[in-house]
């Protein structure tokens, strides 16, 4: 592990410890949710990073289509894989919240339905990569798929769920574009968003560099 990676993981460790302390000892209960609001400080960051990961995947897909490079393909593929993992984590944490508040892990709420569709789209992306043996053709086809897949993300995550009644709590940024949140909660949420983003960046670079190392050895 390189020195900058060690420093990054040390920062992540310290930030994670601070976030965990704040979530369990500083964040006050929320109106209507009580202590269950603590789940949001994991659920919201992993959902945010999932969207970020799919955006990065699409960005590197564009770069690959403009100037084919194995490194661009690796970043696009690994970011999509991580995005899928974070979507699964968001789905699981949302299901736990659903069970604790509404008595059921899954009820096909609009947000649950759209996130399920997103899971299928990116699971298909990984399946597509696994069935194309030629590396150059796989990279090109996957890049096109990643680019068009991301076009669905804003609709599935932000737009479509707002058109239907949902049991899901209101977004952090409400319909008027303002944030109505306790200051301690807001600072803790921002710290957790930063923490999860850094985890994503650290894991992404580690996976890409590890893959390149394997290829160089072979």
- Number of helix segments? 7
Number of separate strands = 0
The biggest beta sheet is recorded as:
none
How much helical structure, as a percent, in the residues? over 70%
Please tell me the overall pLDDT: 89
> Low-confidence parts lasting 5 or more residues at pLDDT below 50?
none
Spell the H/E element sequence: HHHHHHH
Structural account:
The structure is a single chain. 29% of the residues are buried. Helix 2 packs antiparallel against helix 3, helix 2 packs across helix 7 (183-217) and helix 3 (70-102) packs across helix 5 (135-150). This protein is 75% helix and 0% strand. It has 218 residues and is mostly helical. The protein contains seven helices and no strands.
